[in-house]
Design goal:
Strand content: 25-35%
Radius of gyration: 14 Å
Structural class: alpha+beta
Number of helices: 3
Shape: globular
Distance between the termini: 13 Å
Number of strands: 4
Length: about 100
Amino acid sequence: MQAPKGYWIIECQEITDQISMHKYADAWTEIANEFDAKMIAGTKSSNFVEGSHKARVLILEFSSFGVAQECYYSEKYQKAKELALKAMERTFSIIEGI
C-alpha cells in the first residue's frame, strides 16, 4: 500500500520585499525539483468565507508526508526560508493526506 501524500499549506500576506521573493523563487525551483514537489493550487484569486483574509494560499503536493517534512527541514530549504520570511508574512502547515 502506498503511503499517503504530504502537503504544504502556505497562507501568505502581501509580498513586501520583491528582491527577497525573487531570490526565494529561484532557490525554490531547485528544491522543488529535488523533492518532486508539485504546486496543485495557488493563485491570487480566493474566496475567504471564514477567518482572516490572506493575499494568497498555496498548496504543494509531495509523494509522502515524510518527503514533505524532509524537504521543509532540509538545509537548502531552511536557507531559502530566510528569504521567504523577509519577503512576506505567512503561516505554514505540513499535513498528511488521507
